[in-house]
């Protein structure tokens, strides 16, 4: 499994990344394309449903592009406890027959009511870039975000009593169940996947990949973490040192 990470330390991440295995050879062409996607992903605006890249280059998050299929997707997931939920998602993929490697992209958190307004086409710039390289890009909203069923993964978590471990477990369950649902689509390869996330989304893909799920070749994490405030400050220093 290949890991690209731009992450601030967090106990949960360090405790869970043990199963990663290195040693994957990456061609120069592949790396160049991957770096281009990373730049697009970094430029996304976390506070809005559309990114600066989307508006400047693609004319809006919902625009149809020649050679691609871009459409909303409702994923019915089944968790290990047999509970079922529907997750809001958006797919961008090549408009041709075939089963494409999956780029599963997930979002960060605002920590307020704006999380319930999140749109699944939020990272259209990155999704389109991956699709141009032959991927089926699926942006998945975890439980409680946007129109996805369920409660927010940080519900009942406070600065003094954070629930980071539990939040990671919830997010991990959502992403792995979403990946299973995606792989049932006739356009998705069952054994080739990249996981991407930023902020709490980066934290979530690390948690998911810690189980070394079959068919996940790479994980891209941008500043993954939880519990920050005011642009990255520690929510509670006392609680931080007690973790």
Could you walk me through the main structural features you see in this protein, from its secondary elements to its overall organization?
The chain has helices spanning 11-16, 28-42, 52-58, 124-132, 164-182, 200-209, 237-242; strands at residues 2-6, 68-78, 84-94, 100-106, 136-140, 188-198, 216-222, 228-229, 233-234. With 243 residues, it is an alpha/beta fold. The protein has a single domain, classed as Rossmann fold (3-Layer(aba) Sandwich). The chain has a seven-stranded mixed beta sheet with strand order 1-7-6-4-5-3-2. Strands 8-9 form a two-stranded antiparallel sheet. The longest helix has 19 residues, at 164-182. The protein is globular, with a radius of gyration of 17 Å. The model is unreliable at 7-32 and 42-59 (pLDDT under 50).
Write the layout of secondary structure elements.
Elements: E1 2-6, H1 11-16, H2 28-42, H3 52-58, E2 68-78, E3 84-94, E4 100-106, H4 124-132, E5 136-140, H5 164-182, E6 188-198, H6 200-209, E7 216-222, E8 228-229, E9 233-234, H7 237-242
Parallel strand pairs: 1-7, 4-5, 4-6, 6-7
Antiparallel strand pairs: 2-3, 3-5, 8-9
Low-confidence stretches: 7-32, 42-59
What is the percent of helical residues?
25-40%
* Rounded radius of gyration (Å): 17 Å
Oligomeric state as shown: single chain
- Strand ordering within the main sheet: 1-7-6-4-5-3-2
Which shape, going by the Cα principal axes? globular
Q: Per DSSP, what share of the residues sits in E-state strands of 2 or more residues?
A: 25-35%
The count of strands amounts to 9
CATH architecture: 3-Layer(aba) Sandwich
Helix-strand category? alpha/beta
Q: How many domains make up the 3D coordinates?
A: 1
Strand and helix order: EHHHEEEHEHEHEEEH
Terminal Cα separation, in Å? 28 Å
